[in-house]
Design brief:
By secondary structure, the chain is of the alpha/beta class. The chain has one domain: HUPs (Rossmann fold). It is built from 5 helices and 5 strands, in the order E-H-E-H-E-H-E-H-H-E. It has a 5-stranded parallel beta sheet, sandwiched between helices. Strand 1, helix 1 and strand 2 form a beta-alpha-beta unit. The chain is globular, with a radius of gyration of 14 Å. The protein starts with a strand and ends in a 7-residue tail after the last strand.
Length: 133
Amino acid sequence: MSVVVAYSADVYGKAALAYGATEASRRDEKLIVVNDTKGDAYVDKRLAADAEIEALRAELSRLDVETEIHQDVVRDVAEAVLQVSAESSASLIVVGVRPRSPVGKLLLGSVAQRIILDATCPVLAVKPDGSGV
């Protein structure tokens, strides 16, 4: 069993990671951090830089929980998170959510929305202010 965090290198990803780490520790399960990108932009601000991944590894090593970090270029980020969660028998997926306008919600699907709708395990959606949604 594991707790999977859909991580982005921003306040939303950091909020998800904080909740995910707490849940993995509480459940005594492996913490899997997924920081994937579609690779369709010259610069993807949500993809953590090498230095940030190393800092993240150092921070996670202080936790009393087994951790794993996935960082790949994939065709579909939501599908990649769902695949990792299925392969690791995830008991929980944690995603950070950002506010979107009604039109933005209608026109553009989000990774978090797809994960929430398609996951086979519970999904915790977290806002950066620390409140679960």
